[in-house]
């Protein structure tokens, strides 16, 4: 497992009229077995560029799947997501959630990185967030089943 987390002492300032924009996506590594050095490079590049662009967030990589939360100005986050979508180290990027937020979830993390399939998943701050969103979606589909709203997927599969 590779774990890399840098905490900065500067919290990015924002004016009251400047809302935080948050985007959450998942994508698949290409190839699925990215070397640890490539993952470390992704984190190092992200951290330096995100400080410059005042973007914060966290990146989780497990079982060949990236899950990332990024937050900042609308332009910074959308520009970053476009660069990530064009990056050949991942494919099939899917935005899971995006929108304005009252505050940052990760104000002191230019990019927290939790990379690898080994280690304690409890250390990954996205693990609980993902579990909560999955419960929320399951509850939504259960409550709205009579309206004919069903998930677009029926079988979950794990990449090996």
Describe this structure in a few short sentences:
By secondary structure, the protein is of the alpha+beta class. It has helices at about 35-55, 75-85, 125-145; strands at about 1-5, 20-30, 55-60, 65-70, 90-100, 110-115.
Structural class: alpha+beta
* Average pLDDT score: 75
Q: Portion of residues in helices?
A: 25-40%
> Poorly predicted ranges (pLDDT <50, ≥5 residues)?
1-17, 151-160
Tell me the distance between the termini: 16 Å
What is the overall number of helices? 3
Question: What does the main sheet amount to?
Answer: 6 strands, mixed
Number of strands: 6
Enumerate the strands of the largest sheet in spatial order, edge to edge or round the barrel: 1-6-3-4-2-5
Rounded Rg: 16 Å
Shape, per Cα inertia axes: globular
Q: Give the topology string: H per helix, E per strand.
A: EEHEEHEEH
Give the DSSP E fraction (strand runs of 2 or more residues): 25-35%
């Amino acid at each position: 497992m590779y774990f890399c987390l840098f905490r900065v002492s500067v919290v990015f300032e924002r004016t009251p009229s400047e809302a935080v924009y948050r985007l959450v996506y998942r994508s698949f590594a290409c190839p699925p077995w990215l070397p640890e050095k490539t993952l470390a490079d992704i984190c190092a590049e992200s951290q330096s560029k995100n400080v410059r662009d005042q973007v914060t967030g966290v990146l989780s990589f497990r079982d060949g799947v990236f899950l990332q939360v990024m937050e900042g100005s609308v332009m910074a986050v959308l520009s970053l997501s476009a660069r990530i979508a064009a990056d050949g180290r991942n494919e099939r990027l899917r935005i899971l959630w995006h929108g304005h937020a009252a505050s940052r979830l990760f104000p002191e993390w230019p990019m927290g990185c939790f990379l690898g399939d080994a280690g304690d998943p409890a250390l990954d701050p996205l693990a609980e967030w993902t579990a909560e969103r999955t419960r929320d979606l399951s509850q939504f589909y259960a409550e709205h089943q009579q309206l004919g709203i069903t998930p677009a997927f029926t079988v979950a599969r794990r990449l090996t």
